[in-house]
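User: Predict the complex.
Assistant: Input components as received:
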Amino acid sequence: MAETGTYLYAIAQDVGHPLPEEVAGVTGAPVRAITHEGLAAYVSPVPLEEFGEEPLRRFLEDLDWVGGTARAHDRVVEAVAKEAPTAPVRLVTVYSSEDQVRDLLRRRHDDLAEVLDHVTGCREWGVKAYAKPSEEAPRAEEAPEETDSPGTAYLKRRRASLRGREDAWRLAARRAEDIHTTLASISVACHRHRPQDPRLSGREETMLLNGAYLVAEDRREEFVAAVDALRGEEIEIQLTGPWAPYSFTSVDLGPTRAETLDAP
Amino acid sequence: MPRDHQPRGAELAAAGHIPPERVALVDLLDRLLAGGVVVSGDLVLSIADIDLVRISLRALITSVRASDPIPSAHPHGAVALPWDSGEEGPL
């Protein structure tokens, strides 16, 4: 039999019953919960011929594989998050046995419980803002006058156009900051992801904000209404979500093996 | 061809979630590669051990563009087609 590893998707508060529907993991095998003192770790077996270190380096070059794995991972996380406060685990976290996962729950129980407390009753929303600088007409006082020579008129127009564009950018950047501040004030926590590369986002416009907001469920309507109210001429806003709280559970739990060995 | 589904907030709030197939891969990867609980050591493997630069950007872009489904008309006309703004992407 091929060697198998244990793929870890998420850690959640243990609701005391299995997921209502059977959810398939990244390789199609069903996901199960490993529980320990109020915590549940959701795992599925994966073949190490695919998820071992060497094969994985190859597969991570294949975007179809990465995309399929990411979506399967997300499906599991979302199914768990529907049932209980959930801390998603970063993509492709593979243990050699379920015992190691159980050990993680045991050793890091308090840290994990704290993370879960933090996200309880909240969902994550994504807000991306793009600049839409318009080709503004030069302002009246800088518009060329009829008495100007063609060269002077050209320079004036050029200067006015550059200044107009710079102003538009500055204005758009400031608007993005305002958007972030406004949304952060409605949120329990916020996190700014790096703006997406235009080659990945598929957008030519500059992304000014790639924010994630942890919002209490009872303020959801208020949050999305605020997003809609912030939309404007010079800025395009995209709202995504609600997500499981991916951006607010990024804690590094560090190695556990050394501690286990050190334990009395 | 990638596309962003861009529902208004109220619509999203009413629906409760975006259908999974509509979640843009790049938004998902923002979260799955930068967020979430990280466990290092003790593992067969974690993504933290992999140099992500090795994921070929070109492969990423090509595949994002090629593998996303063609958008169907949204009843509210809210589908944006990012690549339709004129020029093709920077490949």
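Chain A touches chain B through 78 residues (CB under 8 Å).
Let me know if you want any component modeled separately.
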